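Deliverable D2.4 — example input (structure tokens):
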């Protein structure tokens, strides 16, 4: 079983699949030569139960986190497909060791950048705004604070940093240059035009998702998309979408009060973890660079419940786990 505590270097062996890459909380595989998928351009993406906070992968994992987030991502892929947004999902018929937490996806020519859309100001966007009054070169009105809703959503791309490094926010012009120079993308693709297509698609998807979330009483503050080009040069939505790992979700009912009080917004899913890690009880000194202590079972249980709660509120349905 894919547990949360399996360190990345011991990704589970899966019959018919060969491990190719470990992310903080996900694993990627390609088909084995003897697999029925061998002659197809597909990959298997697995969502583990690992949880990351303050740039550390924490122990233990959160039971079923990977299943809940994978099912939420699939729900969004289907909803967006109904709105005409193509995605990379090929099949959910995956090895039983990763049932519910993995998808088989079409192998794409990945756009080498994170397509980030922000409807609210916080995190690295707020830090940049406080320095320069802009975010990735986009002018914003004066007087905004942590959690402020932006006049309209903004596209603020970043680089895809190597393991352990931080993604770096880049301007739209820099993105156009990077995509123009990206040798991995199809020669026929004009980088400046591709950047415009990525921005338009990312903003459209965010707007759809933000409205859906808000109807469920959840604020989608910002989110990170990844896109790839298929063999016909179509821009396809890839990676995971609109999960608490790729997005900031806030409970709508508390947002106004926290902004008014100048308080940071509570994370829908990681607030219990953050509160405990930064409390005396954990004995952890974040500034020390030490590895954080293991989470107590009640924090693990409460966090699992928050993931289930997010799934129920956003999709309006329950998950049978
Ligand atoms: C181990 C965790 O890292 C990743 O999964 C990121 N990643 C995605 C790809 C990818 N590559 C080709 N086609 C795709 N459809 C995808 C997707 N999604 C590669 N790395």
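Example output (designed residues):
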């Amino acid at each position: 079983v894919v547990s949360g505590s399996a360190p990345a270097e011991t990704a589970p062996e899966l019959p018919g699949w060969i491990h190719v890459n470990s992310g903080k909380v996900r694993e990627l595989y390609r088909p084995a030569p003897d697999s029925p998928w061998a002659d197809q351009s597909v990959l298997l993406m697995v969502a583990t139960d690992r949880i990351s906070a303050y740039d550390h992968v924490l122990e233990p994992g959160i039971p079923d986190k990977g299943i809940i987030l994978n099912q939420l991502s699939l729900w969004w892929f289907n909803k967006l497909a109904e709105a005409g947004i193509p995605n990379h999902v090929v099949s959910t018929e995956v090895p039983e060791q990763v049932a519910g937490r993995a998808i088989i996806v079409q192998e794409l020519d990945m756009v080498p950048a994170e397509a980030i859309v922000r409807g609210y100001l916080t995190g690295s966007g707020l830090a940049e705004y406080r320095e320069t009054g802009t975010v990735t070169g986009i002018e914003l009105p004066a007087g905004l604070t942590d959690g402020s809703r932006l006049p309209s959503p903004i596209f603020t791309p970043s680089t895809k940093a190597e393991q352990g490094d931080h993604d770096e926010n880049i301007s739209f012009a820099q993105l156009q240059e990077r995509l123009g120079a990206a040798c991995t993308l199809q020669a026929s693709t004009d980088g400046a035009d591709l950047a415009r297509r990525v921005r338009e698609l990312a903003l459209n998807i965010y707007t759809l998702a933000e409205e859906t979330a808000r109807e469920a009483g959840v604020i989608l503050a910002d989110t990170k998309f990844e896109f790839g080009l298929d063999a016909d040069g179509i821009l396809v939505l890839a990676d995971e979408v609109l999960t608490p790992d790729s997005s900031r979700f806030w409970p709508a009912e508390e947002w106004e009060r926290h902004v008014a009080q100048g308080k940071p917004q509570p994370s829908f899913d990681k607030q219990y973890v953050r509160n405990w890690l930064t409390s005396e009880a954990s004995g952890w000194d974040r500034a020390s660079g030490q590895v954080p202590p293991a989470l107590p079972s009640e924090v693990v249980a409460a966090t699992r419940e928050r993931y289930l709660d997010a799934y129920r509120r956003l999709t309006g349905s329950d998950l049978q786990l």
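The longest helix spans residues 191-215.
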